[in-house]
């Protein structure tokens, strides 16, 4: 599963430095094995500054599988929040918790640039990519 921050770099920088490294890493997998959570999809759409950019994002996102949310992922998110939120008061994002729960539920590795946002979640398979 690809975290939102990775997608932002890929789509903004396209064929430049870090984006090329990320794409090379992800190209090791069949696109059918690389997923984007609906939460990341929504975060990107919210960040689009024009209709044209939104359409571009929608087109680019079609290259990857869309991981859809369900009640089990909601339940897993509640479990993670109960387990970790008190110790990280104020330093935990709801979208990040949902993405983590989604990756755990689907038994997927999460590719991210923001290791610190996820490293405390013991049950998450994390693949941090350096900035």
Q: Your description of this structure?
A:
The protein is mostly helical and 131 residues long. The protein has a single domain, classed as Rossmann fold, CATH 3.40.50. It contains six helices and four strands, in the order H-H-E-H-H-E-H-H-E-E. The chain has helices at 4-13, 17-26, 38-47, 51-61, 71-84, 94-105, and strands at 35-37, 65-67, 110-112, 126-128. A two-stranded parallel ribbon has the order 1-2. Strands 3-4 form a two-stranded parallel ribbon. The two termini are 18 Å apart.
Summarize the structure.
By secondary structure, the chain is mainly α. It is built from 6 helices and 4 strands; from the N terminus they run H-H-E-H-H-E-H-H-E-E.
CATH fold group: Rossmann fold
- CATH C-level class is Alpha Beta
Average predicted confidence as pLDDT:
87
List the total number of helices.
6
Beta strands, count: 4
Largest sheet: 2 strands, parallel
Query: What is the radius of gyration computed over CA atoms, rounded to a whole number of angstroms?
Result: 15 Å
What structural class do helix, strand and pairing data support?
Answer: mainly alpha
* Domain module tally: 1
Question: What order do the SSEs take from the amino end to the carboxyl end, as H and E?
Answer: HHEHHEHHEE
Outline? globular
Second-tier CATH architecture: 3-Layer(aba) Sandwich
Strand neighbour order, sheet with most strands = 1-2
β-sheet strand percentage? 5-15%
State the helicity in percent bands.
40-55%
N- to C-terminal separation? 18 Å
Low-confidence runs of at least 5 consecutive residues: none
* CATH homologous superfamily identity: 5'-nuclease
């Amino acid at each position: 599963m690809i975290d939102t921050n990775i997608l932002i770099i890929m789509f903004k920088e396209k064929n430049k430095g870090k984006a090329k490294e990320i794409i090379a890493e992800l190209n090791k997998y069949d696109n059918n094995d690389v997923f984007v959570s609906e939460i990341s999809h929504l975060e990107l759409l919210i960040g689009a500054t024009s209709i044209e950019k939104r359409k571009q994002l929608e087109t680019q996102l079609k290259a990857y599988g869309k991981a859809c949310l369900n009640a089990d992922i909601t339940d897993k998110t509640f479990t993670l929040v109960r387990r970790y939120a008190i110790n990280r008061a104020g330093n935990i994002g709801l979208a990040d918790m949902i993405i983590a729960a989604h990756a755990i539920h689907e038994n997927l590795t999460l590719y991210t640039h923001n290791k610190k946002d996820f490293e405390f979640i013991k049950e998450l398979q994390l693949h941090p990519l350096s900035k």
